[in-house]
Amino acid sequence: MKKIIIFVLAIIPFIAQLIALPLVNRIYPFIFGIPLLHFWLLLWMILTPFFTLTIYQIQKRSGGLNHEH
User: Fold this and answer.
1) How far apart are CA 21 and CA 27, in angstroms?
2) Using CA atoms, how far apart are residues 24 and 52, in angstroms rounded to an integer?
3) How confident is the model at residue 64 (pLDDT cuts 50, 70, 90)?
């Protein structure tokens, strides 16, 4: 189950930044003074590290990050 959650958390930013671009490839509306496309990309550049952090926390909690050799 955790592998599925990790996969979904990893794929959401990819989908939002690459696959959804044709849907938001517009100049109007302006959001906070910038075109929709630029706002969308900026938003996901800010949100992606939170998805990565969540994946890290899930793996750390389940003991998936053993760096002992």
Assistant:
1) 12
2) 23
3) low
Output the CA torsion 31→53→6→19 (10° steps).
Answer: 30
pLDDT at 60 exceeding the cut of 50: yes
DSSP the chain: -HHHHHHHHHHHHHIIIIITHHHH--SPSEETTEEHHHHHHHHHHHHHHHHHHHHHHHHHHTT------
Q: What is the pLDDT of residues 1-41, one digit of tens each?
A: 889 999 999 999 999 989 988 999 888 899 999 999 999 99
Cis peptide before 35 (omega within 30 of 0): no
